[in-house]
Amino acid sequence: MAASLPAFTTLAQDAEVPAPKSAGRNILRVDLVNPVFENVINFDLFEDKPWAFPVLLSYERQLTRQTSLGGEILLNGGNSEQRRSGGSLQFRYYARPNSGPKPLSGFYVAPTVSYRKIQFFDAGIQPSGPYATVRAVGAGAYAGWQGGTETNRHGQRLVLDISAGLMGWLPKNSVPANERPAGEEYESRWISKRVAFDARIGVGVQF
């Protein structure tokens, strides 16, 4: 009994540590869809092309019991023929939020505004550097669900975020050396206004 007393004392002290008042109001996530979609769907796995390793990071901050504001940054997005970067700002409304130690959980809708820079590469058009650069602004909305593991005594837990939505894009193109690009993908997808489907599967930590 004397030997086990220090262990019981430590457990009691740990149990008495309260979670910070701000615990659970923040989430950091990384998206898992972009690397898979851009490399597999665009067949970069099966062709002699350099792989792309997109990194899509997001941060979410709770405002009220049912609302939050988040930011997103995209680095090295796209594929071997397109390189995308940019950011987004997202407002979330949780329709049926969980109470207690699990805020920022449940089904939600999320109006979003975004910015993208897309650079197009083709050695047949321009041997070095992009042959065209598009800068686009977008607006749309997502619907999704977020949940996760049990909350620990510090208010932390792992989360899974799944969402899908539509984004409308308004592009403005610029071409190096005043040359008109010949890329069919560039012409069809980014010369004019367009609406595109988008999806997210993110994992992160809530604290």
Total of DSSP H or I helical runs spanning 4+ residues: 3
> Spatial order of the strands in the main sheet?
1-2-3-4-5-6-7-8
Oligomer: single chain
N-to-C order of helices and strands: HEHEEEEEEHE
Helix content: 10-25%
Question: What radius of gyration results from the CA coordinates?
Answer: 22 Å
Question: What structural class is derived from the secondary structure elements?
Answer: mainly beta
Residue ranges: pLDDT <50 for 5 or more in a row?
7-16
In total, how many beta strands? 8
General shape: elongated
Mean pLDDT: 79
N-to-C span: 37 Å
Structural topology:
Blueprint: H1 5-15, E1 26-31, H2 33-41, E2 55-62, E3 67-78, E4 82-94, E5 106-120, E6 132-148, E7 157-174, H3 184-190, E8 194-206
Antiparallel strand pairs: 1-2, 1-8, 2-3, 3-4, 4-5, 5-6, 6-7, 7-8
Question: Which features would summarize this protein structure in a list?
Answer:
single chain, 207 residues, mainly beta, eight-stranded antiparallel beta barrel, 3 helices, elongated
Folded structure, characterized:
The protein has helices at 5-15, 33-41, 184-190, and strands spanning 26-31, 55-62, 67-78, 82-94, 106-120, 132-148, 157-174, 194-206. A hairpin with an 8-residue loop joins strand 6 (132-148) and strand 7. The chain contains three helices and eight strands. The chain has an eight-stranded antiparallel beta barrel with strand order 1-2-3-4-5-6-7-8. The longest helix is centred in the N-terminal third of the chain and has 11 residues, at 5-15. The chain starts with a helix and ends with a strand. The model is unreliable at 7-16 (pLDDT under 50). The protein is elongated, with a radius of gyration of 22 Å. By secondary structure, it is mainly beta. 13% of the residues lie in helices and 49% in strands.
